[in-house]
Write the structure tokens for this entry.
Amino acid sequence: MQLIYEPPRKQWLELTSRPAQDPARLEKVVKPILEKVKRNGDMALRKFALEYDHVELDDLFVTEEELLASADQVGEELKAAIHVAKENIEKFHLAQKESPITVETMSGVVCQRKSIPVNRVGLYVPGGTAPLFSTALMLGIPAKIAGCKEVIIASPTDSMGQVNATVLYVAHLLGIKKILKIGGAQAIAAMAYGTESVPKVDKIFGPGNQYVTAAKQMVSRDTVAIDMPAGPSEVLVFADKHAEPSFVAADLLSQAEHGADSQVILVTSSKRMVDSVAQEVERQLATLPRKAMAAKALENSRTIYFEDKITAMDYINMYGPEHLILALKDADKYAEMVENAGSVFIGNYTPESAGDYASGTNHTLPTNGWARAMAGVSVDSFVKKVTFQKITPAGLQLLGPSIEAMAAAEKLDAHKMAVTLRLQKIKEGTNEL
Ligand SMILES: NC(=O)c1ccc[n+]([C@@H]2O[C@H](COP(=O)([O-])OP(=O)(O)OC[C@H]3O[C@@H](n4cnc5c(N)ncnc54)[C@H](O)[C@@H]3O)[C@@H](O)[C@H]2O)c1
Ligand SMILES: N[C@H](CO)Cc1c[nH]c[nH+]1
Ligand SMILES: [Zn+2]
């Protein structure tokens, strides 16, 4: 990890950079994949499965037998853990359901806002280097709570053409039956454009590697909405002298192990912590099965020392981490100062992995600084907030003159006419409509 002491503000922007992702290079790889799927449909999906996932697929979708058989392949202990997570995620997401709001803005003028589910949604469950069945929970639960009518999951298979059994177990638990055995940019293209066998969806959700994320961003310029760019994982740990170095190191490594293009940042107000965390990272890294990937991610990562904690918070808000851990004595006070972060973990006993799996919050979160403007997945992401209005003749008599004056001032006479004709009818007393 690169070590920086007290960087001046003019250097901060540079210190918000993520591991170099060359957009031109990504576009060069991803664009032809999108175009080929758009043009050649299922045939292209089969070809890309062979090229990238080394598998010859007969069925593009998981069969009912495969789905039902998944329960036998998941151990009882894991099933119990999944049930705990499911309950917590359901509780937290159910509480996000909003009742319609109705406001009579003027007498006879009633405005309403109501959440209506997005009809057809596609959920991407990553499966390249590790099948993230937890993502199936994080996306499937809010989709079901929102009331989406059609839900498809896409996830890459192993070299035997099987989607991970735990992903299938979770899908079955949530009542999701359509599971596409395709990963990467090609899965995003299939759901965005539709193919002979894959229905086109209205919105695509889910995290993924840089190819998946670039594909989501590219198709969203075209025909489909997306949740947000949820790319390579990140964590920023803000630790003071009271933090426990072994906890901090484990938290940093937990996101470094996601992939070589992950980034982890330690911000600290303690010089002692700089060294003790570095030693712990070295010690723990050596024990990890994914140490090669984590070590690569650490090369993209930084330790930054700020003596003043308020200055440190300013930097953190500028960085906008996907995950922010406040390993501070007065963590609650600093939590109040958070402006930009995907999800915040308060205090020394709140590991980031709690949010990844089971506390109840969603783990599909904005990366690459998008937390400065966007929030992670929630029930809100699966609904459109549609407004309604209803005006009585008496209401239009009250409001109409204001509309007419504004329309005239914008020189939009048809807008004015739409009011004037109605007001005339009311005046004539022939408004029996
Ligand atoms: N931000 C979030 O909320 C969040 C949550 C979970 C995971 N993640 C991230 O998701 C990612 C998961 O990545 P993954 O790779 O394990 O699985 P993945 O499912 O995202 O990607 C695997 C697919 O990538 C495609 N691919 C691989 N190499 C390619 C290449 N050179 N060119 C074109 N396509 C290629 C293949 O088709 C493969 O099926 C990690 O980066 C992790 O950090 C982010
Ligand atoms: N940390 C990831 C989000 O960036 C989510 C995840 C899934 N499994 C483990 N972690
Ligand atoms: Zn994680």
User: Anything to note?
Assistant: The pocket of zinc ion (ligand 3) is lined by residues 233, 254-255, 258, 356 (CB under 6 Å).
